[in-house]
Design goal:
The chain contains 9 helices and 10 strands. The chain is α/β, with parallel strands linked by helices and 267 residues long.
């Protein structure tokens, strides 16, 4: 870590030094570039000791995957939030609720982590961290669950989608595939209601996988996903049989609405 990066983090928080909230800047490889004293106190160390430490080392083992997922989502979305346990050296657990958003530090892509509030130290027994993102406020239909399969060659993207969808009682993620070939085999085995299909993947593209799945299992609804704006790809995957095309970094409410509509409407 360079002195420049540390100073950039300090400038971001120069007016927040006395904040009651824990604040930190975390790099794409999870290392803490800067943190204020409140964040360090929650992590049970001094600010200087915390800087340079992977944030995943400061949370419980069960929460490491959750933290990685949240950071991955923060890089791709405007803002995400969730809960996790810090693991101070005295053995206690401190339940923290944090909100995260992406930022650039001297052209270095990073995530700003703000611990908004926290529970008193304790052993955490009987209290599991839960996601607190705004999606939970959306009214959930009470009909039978929509079985969704995720297809994307990026594990972080699949984890992020799975965590988002897990907030809804009417949606169940039944499987995950890392390429088009695996998606075809898994669709045959699981027979999901809806497939979220990445377009650009190794082995077999999402377009070709969609064509095969729709030919064999026309009742399965497929939603194409891509980082790119709707274009020829959108038309191509629709021609292959997808009912809709969405951007990966698009509105989450639109994704949820499309999943629910696709589960009952013909594509």
């Amino acid at each position: 870590m360079t002195e420049t990066n540390m100073n950039s983090g300090a400038e971001i928080f120069q007016q927040e030094a006395a904040s009651k909230e824990g604040l930190a800047v975390v790099s794409k490889d999870y290392k803490i570039l800067y943190c204020n004293s409140r964040f360090a106190a929650l992590a049970d160390s001094s600010s200087k000791q915390t800087i340079g430490t992977p944030i995943t080392d400061l949370v419980g083992k069960k929460d490491q995957e959750r933290m990685i997922t949240l950071l991955g989502q923060a890089h791709q979305q405007e803002q995400v939030s969730g809960e996790f346990y810090f693991k101070p050296g005295n053995g206690d657990k401190i339940l923290c609720r944090a909100s995260m958003h992406s930022l650039n530090v001297n052209d270095l892509k990073a995530v700003c982590v703000m611990v908004q509030n926290y529970a008193a130290p304790g052993n955490g027994d009987g209290q599991e961290p839960v996601d607190t993102s705004a999606e939970k406020t959306i009214e959930k239909p009470t009909d039978s669950q929509i079985e969704v399969m995720l297809v994307d060659d990026h594990e972080v993207m699949r984890q992020g989608l799975a965590m988002l969808l897990s907030n809804y009682d009417d949606i169940s993620v039944t499987g995950e595939a890392a390429d088009g070939k695996e998606a075809v085999e898994m669709a045959r085995e699981l027979n999901p209601d809806v497939i979220l299909m990445d377009i650009s993947m190794p082995e077999m593209s999402g377009i070709e996988a969609t064509r095969i799945i729709k030919a064999e299992m026309p009742h399965i609804r497929i939603i194409g996903l891509s980082m790119f704006d709707p274009s020829d790809q959108a038309e191509e995957i629709r021609q292959a049989g997808a009912g809709q095309y969405l951007k990966k970094n698009g509105d989450k409410h639109e994704l949820l609405s499309t999943i629910r509509n696709n589960s009952v409407n013909a594509c």
